[in-house]
Amino acid sequence: MTTIEQGALRKLIGTRNENGEVEYQLPIGDQRIALNPLIGKELQLIFHNEIRCCHCNRKTKKSYSQGFCYPCMQKLAQCDMCIMKPETCHYEQGTCREPSWGKSHCMVPHYVYLANTSGLKVGITRHTQIPTRWIDQGATQALPIFKVSNRLQSGLVETALAEFISDKTRAC
Ligand SMILES: [Zn+2]
Predict the structure, then answer these.
(1) How far is the CA of 127 from the centre of ligand 1 (A)?
(2) Which of 2, 92, 119, 153 is deepest in the core (most CB within 10 A)?
């Protein structure tokens, strides 16, 4: 059977089914292609030389910060440096680029966790991203060890733990 879908590619979606297995779906345009049934089969992707911003959909020559156009990369809170360094979250100083986004994404409970991927890692994630974050990282085991009330605190705990665990994986 041949299926032809056309549209913008989005980040792979991984969900855990009732058997504890991860089911992957590839978003293409408005469609979601179930990938598990395609294991062992041939799959062809054709790039049409068009990159669009994953936020505003404008055409861009290059994508920044995992899929944004340059203006969005400059403007959006999710593209700010503090996303890579949660211990530098500056929401409380009143300088967040998008306070409403910061309020819903950073000023909410976060977990600091240990995950077993290729080795032991310490990471942080929003409470709504468990277990998505672990599936994305390919973790075979994960253990939340602290629940804190915002992103800044999770970053500070992570930084303190990094003295004992070298490898880190950071998340939004
Ligand atoms: Zn944009």
Answers:
(1) 27
(2) 153
